[in-house]
Amino acid sequence: MMFPTGCLGENLQFPEFNGATGKSVVLAPEDPPYTSLQIYLITWTFGGVTILFSNAAGTSVSPDYEGRVNLDRTTAALELKNLRLNDSGPYRLTVTTSDLQNHAGQPSLKVYETVSDTTLIGPQESLIEDESSVKLTCEGSGNITSVEWMKNKNPLTPSNRITYSYDNRSVLISSVIRSDSGEYQCTLRNPASSDTANLRLFINYGPEDVFINGPNEVDSGRPVSLSCYAISVPSASFIWRFNGSDTGVTTNTFTIDKSDITHSGDYICTAHNDVTEINVPQRHLLVVKAGGGGGGLTTGSIVGIVIGVLVAVAGIFGLIFYFIKQRQHSEPGIKIAETSTIYENVDFKK
Q1: In this predicted model, what pLDDT tens digit does every residue of 85-99 receive, in sequence order?
Q2: Does domain 8-112 have CATH number 2.60.120.40?
């Protein structure tokens, strides 16, 4: 069968194509001018060797590409599967259409070895704030052209504490602080593939800001609860001492079901971090007042009783004075002695 041949023009435009070993790529021209025309013949070649040609009778594929190629007869796009490194290079497409025109173009393909087996290697030991430094290293296989670092899904920015190696494969974090905790991610890339690994860092610190929550004064018979708190990673453990003696209580709460005066004194809660090995004590003074527990008198009651007694005493003295005055009027010879005469005959030297 004879096909018309017109002027062969390099009028097909292609972008740059990148592929990864074992993957697929589609070599398709950009906005081909023949999609509305009938295509008589499509030919794809690589390195001067025909990959395939296709006409109205069917498509013939070279034995070397059997099972590795697909053709879209509408756009003349070539899908190349199971890519190999030696598939890199210039390809050529020629299309003959029903308007007696030949259209041609030459795309280029670069095949990269697929990035795989990415691992983010970090420290095995526990990290302590202001003491430890961290080196993170990103390793993997394949054709690696760039490395990207992230922390908590944001770019890991260099600083006076965070420095990168010359090839960007390692990061050094000096004198870690608590905000360095989080999920770190490294991504190894080439133009055709990428692979990512993650590692979570925990920075240990504390205990700090230790405080005890509870009453400083309580009536006898009342229950008492003292709670000890601390900022610490990992969580702090607690030891309670009372007036210098170990209580055996190792929770953050010290409880007295029914208090009495023997519970008055100094309570010391010591917060301990098993990783940093730091101990921070906190002191709390508790006073248990006697007469509590519902059987004693309140301060208001005591004041009322005292006032009542004073009023009664004043009334009694008033009555005595009244009766003496009355007797004085009935018996004129009787006088009320002045205070000074009472002590005239008393010898204070005895």
Answers
A1: 999 999 999 999 988
A2: no
